[in-house]
Prior knowledge:
Protein name: Integral membrane protein
Transmembrane segments: 29-52, 64-85, 91-115, 127-150, 179-200, 212-234, 254-272, 284-310
Keywords: Membrane, Transmembrane, Transmembrane helix
Largest sheet: none
Helix content: over 70%
Number of strands: 0
Shape: globular
Number of helices: 12
Oligomer: single chain
Region (Disordered): 1-20
Structural class: mainly alpha
Amino acid sequence: MTTAAQRGAEAIADGDSAERPAPLGPGDFSLTVVAFLVHCLSWTSAAFLISADDVHFATSPVRAWAQFGILLVAGASGIVLLRTLPLHPRIVLSVITVLLFVPSGLASLVSASAGDSNVGQAIAVNLWLLRLLTIVVFPLIVAVVLATILGRTPDSASLANSHAEAADPTPQLPRYRHASLVSATVLIVSALIIAVGFAFEPSVGRFADVPASIAFLTACASLTASTAGLYSLYSLTRNCIADSAAGSPPPPRIAQVLTAVTVVCGMAAFMVSTSRMFGDGADLYFGPIAGPVGMGGTIMSSILLSVLIIRQPAHV
Length: 316
C-alpha cells in the first residue's frame, strides 16, 4: 500500500509537471537569449529591406531572396523562443509564426517575379498585409512569451522544486541578487544613453538630422536594455526559486509587465535607430511616432524595472 501510494503521488506529480513546465535553467535561459538576439537582428534586417522596397517602389531579385532568407531565420528563431511553452500554446504559436514569416518572405519573391501581371500583383498586395502583421504585431507575441516563460516559478517547494534544485544544485542567493543589481545598473545606463539620443531628435518622428554615431549608440542601448530586462526577470525568478522553502512569493506581476514593455519597445527603438543609420524608411511601417514611443517606452520601463529590482528585499 505504501509503495502504491508513493507511485500514485509520483504519477500525480509527473502529471502536474507536464501541465506546468519547470522554470528555465541556466542553459535554457542562455539559449533563449541567443534566440532572442538572432530574432531581433533578423527581424530588424527584414524590416529595413522591406522598407527599402517601398522607398524604391520595386523589389530587386537580390533583395527579394535576402528578405526570404532573413525572414526564415527570424521565424525559426521565433519558434525556438516558444520551445518551453506548454504543448498546445506552443503548437498554436508555432503555426502562427510559420503562417506569418513564410508568406512574408514569399511576398518579395512574388513581387519581383510578377512584373506587370495583375494576378501576381494582387497576390503580392495580399501578402504585403501579412508582412505588416509580421513586422508590427509579432514583437508583441515575442514580448508576452518571454515574460511568461522567464517569470515561471514552481507552485510550491514540492517535488517540482526539488527537480529545479537538482538541475541547479547550488542556487546561490547572493549571486542572483548581485546579478539582479548588475542588470538594474545596465538598464539605467541604457536608458540614459537612449535619452541622450532622443534629445538629438529635432522634431517628432524626424530623425534625418541625427548623426549616425548617435543612432548607432541608441540602437545598441535599445538592444542592451531589452536583453538586460530579460536577465532581470530571470534573476528575480531564480531568487524566488532559491528561497521558495522559506515561503518567498513569486516575482511581482508588474516585473513581467515591465519586461514585456522593455522588450517590445526596445525592439521598435532598435529597428528605428538602425534604419536611421542607413535611411529614413522605418516610418513606413511604424508611423512617425515609432521613435518617440519606442525610445520613451524603453526609457520608462527600464527605469521602473531597475527601481523594482533595487527595492527588492535583500533576502530575495
